[in-house]
Amino acid sequence: xxxxxxxxxxxxxxxxxxxxxxxxxxxxxxxxxxxxxxxxxxxxxxxxxxxxxxxxxxxxxxxxxxxxxxxxxxxxxxxxxxxxxxxxxxxxxxxxxxxxxxxxxxxxxxxxxxxxxxxxxxxxxxxxxxxxxxxxxxxxxxxxxxxxxxxxxxxxxxxxxxxxxxxxxxxxxxxxxxxxx
Length: 181
What we know:
The chain is an all-alpha fold. It has one domain (13-173). It has helices spanning 14-51, 58-79, 87-92, 95-129, 134-163, 168-179.
């Protein structure tokens, strides 16, 4: 039976608890941004109806916020194992082959998100010092942070799966699934 890792477990598993908290936090921030974008869009619609013209900058704000939402949720999606994979093939494999397939998948996912973070770091720094506007540099840093967290979470999943330990979020997800009709 897999051993249970609690967020209060000391020692080498403390990074799991930190990553879980960061993943939940970024997911909550993404949810708040979704609500904020809805308010901005509503204000734009009201402005068009009342004043006969749209609010300035809404297109840029909405575009940047949507990108931020996607990358802020990436880390949580990885930790919850919500990324796309073919489980039925894994179920057909013997355990040693399954471990290799999981390790390759986690490595590829980590490399993808590491490449995204690395590719967006110079533009994030340039946007911070440039005249691109506040929304642009915040969006760039959100991409870097979200991709880096997803990369770390892929690494943690590899460690947890390949050592047979149970991630803390899995038990939470199981509790939530029990509530579904």
